[in-house]
Amino acid sequence: MITLQKGKRSVDKFDVILSPHAIKDMDSFSGIVCSKIVRALGALRENPFPKGRLIKKIKGKKTDFYRLRADMHRVFYVIESGKVVVLRILSKKEADRFISGLK
Questions:
Q1: Average predicted confidence (pLDDT) for the chain
Q2: pTM
């Protein structure tokens, strides 16, 4: 969401929502991995749009899907109505198969 204050433009933080699949994915990881992923999800609250090497837009799909790199795992998400909806959190190995299944 964007709000205007005295001629300045400021961006509010985005809500990060985990899908049921993403919650199951998180449950399968160790505590150390979960803490790294939670830290990466915190960065999505500030700015979920692609910048740098960690966040990339997945090309060739009808919907705008994004991928966040969190250590050896990948966080797949979409942005809907000012909210970041995390679809899956997968290992790098499983990520390619997930991307090919997206529409």
A1: 83
A2: 0.81
